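User: Fold this; tokens only.

Assistant: Input:
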Amino acid sequence: MSNEPRDLNRDPITGAPGSHPVGVGVGGTGGAVAGAAVGSLFGPIGTLVGGAVGAIAGAATGKGVAERLDPTAEEEYWRTEHANRPYTDPGFEYDSDYAPAYRYGLEVREQSGSAPWSDSLEARARSGWDASRGRSRLTWEQARDAVRDAFERSDRTYRAYEAADGYYADQYESADYYLSDYDFDDYRPAYRYGTYARSNLHGRVWDAELEQELERGWDTARGASRLDWDSARDAVRDAWHGADRLWSDEDDSRR
């Protein structure tokens, strides 16, 4: 199988791979389902949770399951990352002050559908802050950047998975690794796994060491997929390389 990255049909406005509308069913009891098996793999982009199977693998349920991000995983991400943000004030605490703002940004994204951050959405978010702030001492002006930061991070997560799902749903049967005994509900967890891995492992390349790490996490991440690792590996690798162009651009922008 070729290791060349595929074109994920980028959105001409956002640059995100893929523009196919797709209903994404994701699963649920394990927020960072493969986190224990693959170490820090599942931190920076966010973890999708929802129904009854694993977050990365939970593809079989389709449109009927409401998609959301794991608030615990998100809170732990921001616990470390918030100190790197220019808007944070050391006079405030993470747990009591900033965590409610990040949590609120996640809630706003979940409630806004596919609407991007805009002046009108910000106005709605502002009107709800006092009811959502809990113990936070932040005024809306102090909380706004954190709320938007969490909103936009979660928005990127949703759109990355929608794009990958939409693209591979149209392509998987033509792949040279496709096995006709299986359907997209079996392959989608593998594509999400590869996409997720590449989005988080900045600077890594696909090699034997990485493949072994992903193999150790597959049994947990696969959810309801019937694919064993030997059958899933090429699809995971396909998605890794398909996402490589997008995330390489993001890596470059951070330098």
